[in-house]
Amino acid sequence: MFKQFISKIPGADIYMVGSFITFLAFFILVGLYLVLVDKTYIRQMSQMPLDESSTD
């Protein structure tokens, strides 16, 4: 079904490759951010909604 739909659109392969690269780049950047971010910052942010003693 999708093969017939894609074959009717000229240049559809460019859009598919472009969207795949965008998708892949986004998740690689998010993964790098998660690996490189400071772990104490993550712990502090995860406790923030539960910690009522701080005002900031």
User: Counting H and I runs of at least 4 residues, what is the number of helices?
Assistant: 3
Beta content comes to under 5%
Radius of gyration: 21 Å
Order of helices and strands: HHH
End-to-end Cα distance, whole Å, is 54 Å
Low-confidence runs (pLDDT<50, min 5 residues)? none
| Total strand segments | 0
| Helical percentage | over 70%
Structural class: mainly alpha
- The overall pLDDT, averaged over residues, is 83
Outline: elongated
Walk me through what this model shows.
The protein is mostly helical and 56 residues long. The chain has helices at residues 2-8, 12-36, 39-47. It is elongated, with a radius of gyration of 21 Å. It contains 3 helices and no strands. Helix content is 73%, strand content 0%. The model has no long low-confidence stretch (mean pLDDT 83).
Keywords for this structure?
73% helix, single chain, mainly alpha, elongated, 56 residues, 0% strand
Annotate the secondary structure layout:
Elements: H1 2-8, H2 12-36, H3 39-47
